[in-house]
Specification:
264 residues, alpha/beta
């Protein structure tokens, strides 16, 4: 097994072990999105996704690459989208199938999507690229299965995040630190992301900052303060995270890419 395939397999095994936890976390989102940093990050991400996803998806085919527990798909299905999803974890897909009965959900590799060319109008890919040593294969496959003019919405991990997670992740490869995840992750810049998507055949590529600030450290050091802090911080976060001066230091990127014409 190559290093790339080994890394992907480790990520799948980790997320398989965490399937119950992710299902429980998404259930908690309905109660309080300021409860922890995970819920807050998804809350901020949803605000950006709404900017690009039509309110009604009637007649639109949408693929979730790395669909996990099917949380996003279930909500989009309610809005009329014709949904499909793939994931490398059978445990994640078990939840996704419960949340989306009868939907086209497949066990598959993100670098080898089991769909024909040009069959989707939109693609979501949330928290997948950060586990890929080389994201070009996944990005190329998403371009392939999108229709010309189709929209791709993809998250990635910023190298210069104010949470300093790039440094933390490398340290825990050498020294176990509490319950921090030891799986190696991969970080990028907005310039690198734009280049990868343009090379894959996307015509328009915008990179947004989703949320900002060293808030994960507040959760670890003073968890009782976190909900109040996040409520106070969010209006500023909404302004600053995607500002040109601060975007590179955000804690999550969202790429909005539009597929060019075939052969362009």
């Amino acid at each position: 097994m190559s290093n790339i395939e080994s890394q992907k397999q480790q990520a799948i095994e980790l997320h398989s072990a965490q399937a119950d936890m992710f299902a429980a976390r998404y259930a908690e989102a309905a109660q309080d999105v300021y409860k922890d940093c995970f819920l807050y990050s998804r809350h901020r991400l949803d605000a950006l996704l709404r900017r690009y996803l039509p309110e009604r998806g009637d007649g639109l085919r949408l693929l979730d690459v790395g669909c996990g527990t099917g949380h996003h798909l279930a909500r989009l299905r309610q809005r009329g989208y014709e949904i499909a999803g793939i994931d490398g974890s059978e445990e994640m897909l078990r939840y996704a199938r419960m949340n989306n009965p009868g939907a086209d959900l497949r066990l598959a590799d993100v670098d080898r999507l089991p769909f024909p060319d040009g069959c989707f109008d939109l693609i979501l890919c949330i928290e997948v690229l950060r586990y890929l040593p080389d994201a070009s294969g996944c990005i190329g496959e998403m371009a392939r299965v999108l229709k010309p003019g189709g929209i791709c919405l993809v998250t990635a991990a910023p190298r210069f995040s104010l949470n300093a997670y790039w440094v933390v992740n490398r340290v825990v490869q050498l020294i176990p630190v509490g319950n921090l995840v030891r799986l190696k992750q991969f970080f990028t810049t907005s310039v690198q992301l734009r280049r990868q998507f343009l090379e894959a055949g996307f015509q328009t590529v915008n990179v947004h900052g989703v949320y900002l600030g060293p808030i994960n450290w507040v959760q670890r050091l003073a968890p009782r303060l976190l909900p109040r802090l996040l409520r106070a911080w969010e209006p500023h976060d909404a302004t600053l995270a995607d500002h040109a001066l601060w975007r590179e230091f955000s804690n999550m990127f969202l790429v909005h890419a539009v597929r060019g014409e075939r052969g362009a």
